[in-house]
Amino acid sequence: MSLCRRTFLLGAPVALTACARTPASPPPPLPPITLEDAFAGRAVGAGVFRVWLTGQERRFTARLDGRLEGDRLTVVEDFVYDDGDENRLTWVFDRTGPGRWQGRREDTVGPAEVIETGTEIRLTYTADFESPDGVTRLGFSDVIYFGPDGRIINDAIVTRWGLPVARVRFEMIRQ
Q1: CATH (domain of 134)
Q2: How far is the C-alpha of 148 from the C-alpha of 49, rounded, in Å?
Q3: What pTM was computed for the model?
Q4: N or C: the chain end with fewer CB closer than 10 Å?
Q5: Helix, strand, coil share of the chain (percent; to 5)
Q6: Least reliable range by pLDDT among 13-17, 33-37, 73-77, 79-83
Q7: Which helix (H) or strand (E) holds 17?
Q8: Residue 70's domain spans which residues?
Q9: pLDDT value for 23
Q10: Is there a contact between 161 and 154 (Cβ–Cβ < 8 Å)?
Q11: What is the dihedral of CA 51, 152, 27, 48, to 10 degrees?
Q12: For residue range 87-137, what is the model confidence (pLDDT) as tens digits?
C-alpha cells in the first residue's frame, strides 16, 4: 500500500469526525422566524454546495414559491445550476404541533422533521440524489434564520453513511 493511500485512509476518518454533523446556531441577536415567515410567498436566492474532501463546488440559483393553506405549506423550488442543469422540487410541510412540522419532497426518504426554536428553524431529512453514476443517499441537517440584512439564510451539513461530507449555504431574499 502506498504512503499516500495509507495517509488518506488514516487521516480521512479523523478529519471527518472533527466536522460537525449539524450546523452551529448563528450568533445572537436574531429576529424570530417561523417556517411560514421563511417560505410563504415568493423568494429568490443563490447558493453553493461544497464537498469538503475534494473542494468541489456546485453553485445554483433558485426561485421559491410558497403557499400556506391552513396547516399545510407547499413550497415549489426551481433550481438552475452553474453547469446548466435545472430541477424542480416541491416541499409539502404539514404542521404537527406548535413549532413543529413534517415534510416531504419528491426525493426524500421518509419524513423531514422541522422544529422552530424562535430565532431559527432546524430541518433534518434524508434524500436520494440521482446522477449518471446512480443514486446517492445523503442526510441533511439545516439551520434557517434571518441574517442581519433581512436575508433568509439556510446553512446545511450534508452527511453520507452518517459522516459529514459537504456543506450547503443558500441565501434568499423575499420578493
Answers
A1: 2.40.128.20
A2: 22
A3: 0.86
A4: N
A5: 10, 60, 30
A6: 13-17
A7: helix 3-18
A8: 3-174
A9: 85
A10: no
A11: 10
A12: 999 999 999 999 999 999 999 999 999 999 999 999 999 999 877 678 999
